[in-house]
Amino acid sequence: MARKPMMAGNWKMNNTVGEAVVLTQEISNQYDKEWPEALDIVICPPFVDLKPAKTVLDFDRTKIAVGAQNVYWEPKGAFTGEVSVPMIKEIGCACSIVGHSERRELFGETNEDVNRKVKALVGAGLYAIVCVGESLAVREEGATEKYVTAQVRAAFAGVDARDAARCVVAYEPIWAIGTGRTATPEQAQAVCAAVRATLAELFGAETAESMRVLYGGSMNPGNVEGLMAQPDIDGGLVGGASLKAESFVQLVEACR
Ligand code: PEP
Predict the structure, then answer these.
(1) Where does substrate bind (predicted)?
(2) CA dist 35 to 5, 45, 167, Å?
(3) Rounded distance from Cα 103 to ligand 1 centre (Å)
């Protein structure tokens, strides 16, 4: 089954509102009306930039989706500092990244938290970009596939196939994120294939074949082609290279 590629930009904690408006406008200025036929594009700015970025894209009638980088699973209440799914939904977000390795490593996000967030998102009609990936120590132990597929199982525990089908998995080896060190296309393909095989066990082959599995970790215009040539890599979740309109647009072009 042919899957529509996806290019998602994770801005991390970069860009004030003013800077976000400029970057979104620069991307929008290079918008090609044929992009939506060929691929799905998402930008994931910080929370405060979501509404301004969405406003720019809507004003320009640009079919680029906006997603959050994180979300809390409770809809409202005494959770100081958190932002809920209904809040991001109301301002037009299509999705949220969940389980990014920086959230897992720096903020103690667990597999159980990731699962709650996935359920909250799909329950509200949004989708999750579920990040999974191993540390260098896990890779050197030879335990990568076991570790990553366990993360996939935990993230989707209790999620039904119809909701899972709308979600996206991003395989992001931690040792490749922001380091300039990319997984080889073969390394990335091997893990993305294992992710898909796990999705097939959980949800059946047809659903697994329809789900997008992205690669993330120092993806850039120089290495995107080799990664995109792999049968189980359906696009990218990109940090550094999404912060300049020129490189992000080059990545979008490479995915169509
Ligand atoms: C990311 O933040 O998800 C990421 C892959 O970052 P980078 O592209 O900078 O490695």
Answers:
(1) 10-12, 178, 218, 239-240
(2) 11, 20, 20
(3) 13
**172 counts as catalytic:** yes
Domain 6-255, classified CATH 3.20.20.70, yes or no: yes
Is the shortest distance between the CB of 189 and ligand 1 below 6 Å?
Answer: no
Is the full-model pTM beyond 0.90? yes
Q: Is 8 in the pocket of ligand 1 (CB under 6 A)?
A: no
H-run or E-run covering 8: strand 6-10
| Chain Cα centroid distance, residue 144 | 20
pLDDT value, residue 28: 97
Cα(198)–Cα(213) distance, rounded to whole angstroms? 12
| CA 70/CA 236 separation, integer angstroms | 18
Model ipTM?
Answer: 0.97
| Protein residue whose Cα sits closest to atom 8 of ligand 1 | 239
Q: Which of 74, 109, 172, 225 is catalytic?
A: 172
- Determine which residue's CA is closest to atom 6 belonging to ligand 1: 239
The token duo for 60 is 């320009």
* pLDDT of res. 1: 58
Stretches where the chain sits below pLDDT 50 are none
Distance CA 199, CA 153 (A): 8
Q: 86: which DSSP letter?
A: H
> Does ligand 1 lie within 6 Å of residue 236's CB atom?
no
Mean pLDDT of the chain: 97
